[in-house]
Amino acid sequence: MRILLKKVVSLFLILPVIFITASADGEYQRMNIVTEYISSDLMSDIKDEEAILTASDGSLQLNAKSAILIEMNSGKVLFEKDADVKMPPASITKIMTLLLVMEAIEAKKFDYNTEVTCSEHASSMGGSQIWLEVGEKMTVDELLRASAIGSANDATCALGELVSGSEEGFVSLMNERAKSLSMTNTEFKNSTGLDADGHLTTARDIAIMSRELLKHKDITKYTTVWMDSLRDGKTELVNTNKLVRFYDGATGLKTGTTSGAGCCLSASATRDELSLIAVVLGCDTSNNRFQDAKKLLNYGFSNYGNATVKIAQDELPELPVSKGTQSTVTLASEESVSFLVTKGKEGDIQKSFDLPESLVAPIKAGETVGTITFSLDGKTLGQIPIVASNNIKKMTYLNAVSRVLSSLFLK
Question: How far from 255 is each of 86, 124, 126, 166, 268, CA to CA, in Å?
Fold first, then answer.
């Protein structure tokens, strides 16, 4: 009886959505977007079910054909599976579109309140959309919400036209930016991610552009939103990324689904100052992509952490200076530095100081005079410079005479 009641309640929750929305061919059907997030069964898959992390041989069990997990700050790869195989990315393509828009805003080419008039071309986009009409105006902020939350192809196209004047010009800019980021296996054919011959990228390249996008802090104001609306509440937006609601620390980033690409996801999350990006491509179902991304993120958070190493001032000696107006120089470095390490190894990081026995004037404040090397288990984690704290001029004849005269008068 309780099971029957649950099904009846679920049916009544879904039916109103079915009757008031129309389906559209392409990345998603609008009806499917909404009902997917109402179904309590689907929600529990992400919210309550624990992901199985590893197989018996210690490897991650993934449904995805291709995947990668990286730490955001360093870009270090923590896990990969066929990460360089070229595949269609579907709407994960929009990460590059969003990146170029954010860069244009940063360059003050326009701002969030700039109004954009929908062209005939943008209005003609299929797949996920907010049904922009030719001549309809929306702000950049509204189009970003539609693109990042609802994966709207018409909104994305309109943003691309704003940046470059046409989608064709914008796609050229997308490919130029991909090359500048060393995305060596990527070729974009459109701004939306709809299937097109030769529109290909890789999990590794997606991780690269995802990392670059997340450097723009404002983007998470869009990618972390679960539900929103446009047109004074007449158009509802529901985030296509379930993890935003059901995964602790999720910060985005973008889903993608087409018949050619399968179900894809670039998922980002931050916990305890550790930020991760997980990319999965070619999953056979929507739910499997979320489970795969969750497995990757869980693996990262369970096995890695940031270790902060402090450098005390008394660890930096004063160095003797020859031929200078002062006999010693004080040194400085960063007060602390963080490294990604395997959990349990945080206290095992070693420091070594590389400094000369003395320095010769002149010396400029901020000049690098040595290095601190950090290592773990015999492997170098990184280095930071040791610099001079103050200027020291070279001793000249006049300096020497002045010093002698000063000492005589002081006596």
Answer: 17, 22, 17, 24, 11
Q: What's the CA gap between 145 and 139, in Å, rounded?
A: 10
Minimal CA–CA distance to 300: which of 68, 83, 85, 66? 68
What's the per-residue H, E or C state across 170-200? HHHHHHHHHHHCCCCCCECCCCCCCCCCCCE
Phi, psi angle pair for 81, to nearest 5°: -140, 110
* 87 and 202 Cβ atoms separated by less than 8 Å: yes
Architecture of domain 311-398: Sandwich (2.60)
In CATH, which of 3.40.50.720, 3.40.710.10, 3.40.50.2300, 3.40.50.300 is domain 27-304? Answer: 3.40.710.10
User: Which residue type does 267 have?
Assistant: A
Give dist(CA 67, CA 209) in Å, integer.
15
Active-site positions read 91, 94, 151
Domain ranges of the chain: 27-304, 311-398
**pLDDT string in tens for the chain (411-residue length):** 444 444 444 444 433 333 222 222 344 333 333 323 333 334 444 443 444 445 444 578 999 999 999 999 999 999 999 999 999 999 999 999 999 999 999 999 999 999 999 999 999 998 999 999 999 999 999 999 999 999 999 999 999 999 999 999 999 999 999 999 999 999 999 999 999 999 999 999 999 999 999 999 999 999 999 999 999 999 999 999 999 999 999 999 999 999 999 999 999 999 999 999 999 999 999 999 999 999 999 999 999 999 999 999 999 999 999 988 899 999 999 999 999 999 999 899 999 999 999 999 999 999 999 999 999 999 999 999 999 999 999 877 666 556 556 666 655
Q: How many CB atoms lie within 10 A of CB 146?
A: 27
The predicted model scores a pTM of 0.82
